[in-house]
């Protein structure tokens, strides 16, 4: 049986690529050095696959920045503003980064240079960045303009193919990977042109066919063409585009393996099965409930590559079970059944062996990219009737141990989850009523001003946290340092004249990690990095077991902060959905259950904060929208449990305790009713860059509760003027009753410096004062 993978993590086990890129960008190392590191990584990754017994090696899964950007440069889709000079790797970097480096809020507000932000005024702003389907990976959106002309431009693909052939000595073992023409066009955006995207398909296919031709001349037999949009709900014209595209590519002298992943094919099944290509890769995990139909409908004389090892998660595969699932496919396809992970391994960390500090029991339940290669091989041998019984037995043992493990399963948590039905999810009193009590109690002016939570994380703060973690700073000293910091930001807020204060989150490195570290059921790796975009990586925590809260997590900080001021101090928590969304989640129970366990832990925290005298509590749900399933038909169910987890977190408080939530980097049109059901007393959102356009969804819906539309773009070092902010708030006030408007920045300020933050917030407070005179 042929074994292969769709792609390997490119960043390197020790993030070598990240460091090489950043050194190069800073001018600290040469282009030559960057090439050497990159080449070494490619060779290492191919060698790892060879050693693991993979039959086909992917090429062009490597990228200096992003695989979609690879396609853009290969196809000559270079935005006009970068076309003046001949193409070089630096041009690609400029397409991705503009000329200036961007922020580092990797989680959420991904810190990219958005063309609508201040960068738009610069001649060479970076391309927009979007999430790759429902992953946390971001790609550079291809830009099509009036003069876009598809033409092979970047020849790196062919050079890397040569490099791989030199390594293996055999071209037929090399499988170049391309983003498919239809997916590429679908993800591209028109820029100052009205040419319908699909009109460009024939010209685009012309170049794809030249590329395939050239690969064939290099001796290549198989090319993997990724068309993940086949798992989306497609309109007729896009379905037709698939037929046209692959009809036209039948002429080319290579075999095409069409790859889909992340979901079922839904009603694109028939279309996909009839496309004139040599084979299909199908995600047997996320597409599990259509796997039978795929096996039944895919033509028996073609190749079917099945992904039954999870490319999106870090759990060991149950190989015995997987082998059983593959049997019908083996019977039908024989040698034409291929085996691979479900999708590219880009989305998992590189090597579990590096994790020397992980609990050995937990470690025994995990598999990272390298370990997944071994799983593929074991599985292929098992299905081929050459099973390595001993290895399979060890795997079975791990799977059984996990199912019974008390590390994973906590009877107390499960007992509590079983009582969920008895907890009311509604607040005791409806917003329209309870707001009266809140208004009477807080006595805030019109247009109350506040911030989203974090304040600039200075060098000193980061250093203190690091030293504490490494045991170089005692707990007493650490607490004193953080309290001093909190005290200082309170003084600053007093000077600035804000109405509702925050403690500034100096004790938090990351809004998910901070809570995960204090919850049972969460584990952290040392090297479990996953690329988020360019050189940026995240290290998602692992939710391995039933989640509970051994003790209060934020109360002492908030209590201290409140003791330092008469102003209202907002408590600050990360919501359950966001905790889930930015972690690797266990796969042995529904996400809904895991989410509810986190929500219960947060519910206790909320009640503890309230008991400690904190009267406003903000629960951030930055990732609520990101969690939306790829298929529209699954949205309602997701939104139901996501919203309910928020209500479970918050419903226990008194009427006069005010619940805030914050969501950034979000569009609300299609989820506004769900957001309204969350019933937060106040929601703060990111609106400044859209000139309040994002507010329309709230206005059209008649959103009933209070809103703080962001009036200042925290991604930019620019200091907004009073007038700019007055204008924005006035815009909001045209459509939203002023009694329900708050004034705040778009998001937290941790990536900013004080030199911008203090004047910007002062202007914001002045803007609120101007407005109070007008209303
Ligand atoms: N409270 C968090 C902060 O201010 C919110 C961050 C976010 O929404 N991403 O940093
Ligand atoms: Zn935010």
TrEMBL record:
User: Per the database record, which ranges form the Cobalamin-independent methionine synthase MetE N-terminal domain?
Assistant: 3-332
Pathway in which this enzyme or protein is active = Amino-acid biosynthesis; L-methionine biosynthesis via de novo pathway; L-methionine from L-homocysteine (MetE route): step 1/1
Catalytic activity reported: 5-methyltetrahydropteroyltri-L-glutamate + L-homocysteine = tetrahydropteroyltri-L-glutamate + L-methionine
Cobalamin-independent methionine synthase MetE C-terminal/archaeal domain residues:
447-769
* Cofactor(s) needed: Zn(2+)
- Mind telling me which InterPro entries this protein's record contains? Cbl-indep_Met_Synth_N (IPR013215), Cobalamin-indep_Met_synthase (IPR006276), Met_Synth_C/arc (IPR002629), UROD/MetE-like_sf (IPR038071)
List, in alphabetical order, the Gene Ontology terms for molecular function in this entry. Answer: 5-methyltetrahydropteroyltriglutamate-homocysteine S-methyltransferase activity; zinc ion binding
What does the entry list as the binding residues for Zn(2+)?
Answer: 662, 664, 686, 747
Q: Where does Zn(2+) 1 bind?
A: 664, 686, 747
The Enzyme Commission number assigned here is 2.1.1.14
According to its UniProt record, this protein's enzyme class is transferase
UniProt entry keywords in alphabetical sequence: Amino-acid biosynthesis, Metal-binding, Methionine biosynthesis, Methyltransferase, Repeat, Transferase, Zinc
| Positions annotated to bind Zn(2+) 2 | 662
The cross-references to HAMAP family, in alphabetical order and at most eight, read: Meth_synth
Question: What is the recorded function of this protein according to its Swiss-Prot or TrEMBL entry?
Answer: Catalyzes the transfer of a methyl group from 5-methyltetrahydrofolate to homocysteine resulting in methionine formation.
Q: Which family does it belong to?
A: Belongs to the vitamin-B12 independent methionine synthase family.
Q: What is this protein called?
A: 5-methyltetrahydropteroyltriglutamate--homocysteine methyltransferase
Lineage summary: Bacteria, Pseudomonadati, Pseudomonadota, Gammaproteobacteria, Thiotrichales
């Amino acid at each position: 049986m042929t074994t292969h993978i769709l792609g390997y993590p490119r960043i390197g086990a020790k993030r070598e690529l990240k460091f090489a890129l950043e050194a190069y960008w800073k001018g600290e190392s040469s282009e030559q050095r960057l090439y050497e590191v990159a080449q070494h990584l490619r060779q290492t990754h191919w060698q790892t696959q060879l050693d693991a017994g993979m039959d086909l090696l992917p090429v062009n899964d490597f990228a200096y920045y992003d695989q979609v950007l690879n396609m853009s440069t290969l196809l000559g889709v270079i935005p006009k503003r970068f076309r003046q000079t001949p193409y070089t790797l630096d041009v690609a970097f400029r397409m991705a980064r503009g000329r200036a480096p961007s922020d580092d809020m990797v989680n959420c507000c991904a810190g990219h240079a958005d063309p609508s932000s201040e960068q738009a005024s610069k001649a060479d702003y970076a391309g927009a960045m979007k999430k790759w389907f429902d992953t946390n990976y971001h790609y550079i959106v291809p830009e099509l303009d009036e003069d876009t002309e598809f033409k092979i431009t970047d020849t790196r693909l062919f050079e890397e193919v040569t490099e791989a052939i030199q390594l293996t000595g055999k071209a037929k073992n090399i499988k170049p990977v391309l983003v498919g023409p239809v997916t590429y066009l679908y993800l591209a955006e028109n820029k100052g042109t009205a040419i319908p995207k699909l009109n460009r398909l024939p010209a685009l296919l012309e170049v794809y066919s030249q590329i395939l031709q050239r690969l064939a001349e290099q001796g290549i037999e198989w090319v993997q063409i990724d068309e993940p949009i086949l798992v989306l709900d497609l309109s007729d014209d896009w379905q037709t585009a698939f037929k046209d595209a692959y009809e036209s590519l039948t002429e080319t002298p290579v075999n095409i393996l069409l790859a889909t992943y992340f979901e079922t094919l839904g009603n694109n099944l028939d279309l996909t099965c009839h496309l004139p290509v040599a084979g299909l890769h199908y995600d047997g995990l996320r597409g599990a409930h259509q796997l039978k139909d795929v096996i039944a409908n895919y033509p028996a004389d073609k190749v079917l590559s099945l992904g039954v090892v999870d490319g999106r998660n870090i759990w060991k595969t149950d190989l015995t079970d997987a082998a059983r699932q593959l049997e019908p496919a083996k019977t039908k396809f024989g040698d034409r059944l291929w085996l691979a992970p479900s999708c590219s391994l880009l989305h998992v960390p590189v090597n579990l062996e590096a994790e020397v500090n992980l609990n050995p029991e937990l470690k025994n339940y995990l598999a990272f990219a390298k370990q997944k290669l071994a799983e593929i091989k074991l599985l292929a041998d098992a299905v081929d009737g050459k099973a390595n019984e001993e290895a399979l037995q060890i795997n079975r043992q791990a799977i059984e141990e996990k199912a019974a493990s008390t590390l994973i399963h906590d009877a107390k948590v499960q007992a509590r989850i079983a009582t969920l039905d008895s907890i009311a999810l509604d607040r005791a009193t409806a917003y329209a009523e309870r707001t009266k009590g809140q208004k009477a109690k807080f006595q805030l002016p019109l247009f109350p001003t506040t911030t989203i939570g974090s304040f600039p994380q200075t060098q000193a703060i980061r250093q203190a946290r690091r030293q504490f973690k490494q045991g170089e700073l005692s707990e007493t000293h650490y607490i004193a340092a953080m309290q001093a910091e909190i005290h200082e930001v309170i003084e600053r807020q007093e000077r600035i004249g804000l109405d509702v204060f925050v403690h500034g989150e100096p004790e938090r490195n990351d809004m998910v990690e901070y809570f995960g570290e204090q919850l049972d059921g969460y584990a952290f790796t040392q090297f479990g990095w996953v690329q988020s975009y360019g050189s940026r990586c995240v290290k998602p925590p692992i939710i391995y077991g039933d989640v509970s809260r051994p003790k209060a997590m934020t109360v002492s900080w908030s209590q201290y902060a409140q003791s330092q001021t008469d102003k209202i101090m907002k408590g600050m928590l990360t919501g359950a959905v966001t905790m889930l969304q930015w972690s690797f989640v266990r796969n042995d129970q529904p996400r809904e259950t895991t989410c509810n366990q986190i929500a219960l832990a947060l519910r206790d925290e909320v009640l503890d904060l309230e008991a400690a005298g904190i009267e406003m509590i903000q629960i951030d749900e930055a990732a609520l929208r990101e969690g939306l399933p790829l298929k529209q038909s699954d949205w309602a169910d997701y939104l139901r449990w996501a919203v309910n987890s928020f209500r479970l977190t918050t419903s226990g408080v008194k009427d006069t305790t005010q619940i805030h939530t914050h969501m950034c980097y979000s569009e609300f049109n299609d989820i506004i009713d769900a957001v309204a059901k969350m019933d937060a007393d106040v929601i703060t959102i990111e609106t400044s860059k859209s000139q309040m356009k994002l507010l329309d969804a709230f206005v059209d819906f008649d959103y009933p509760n209070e809103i703080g539309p962001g009036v200042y773009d925290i991604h930019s070092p620019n200091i907004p003027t009073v007038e700019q902010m007055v204008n924005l708030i006035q815009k909001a006030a045209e459509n939203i009753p002023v009694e329900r408007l708050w004034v705040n920045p778009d998001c937290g300020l941790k990536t900013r410096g004080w030199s911008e933050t203090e004047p910007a917030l002062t202007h914001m407070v002045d803007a609120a004062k101007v407005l109070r005179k007008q209303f």
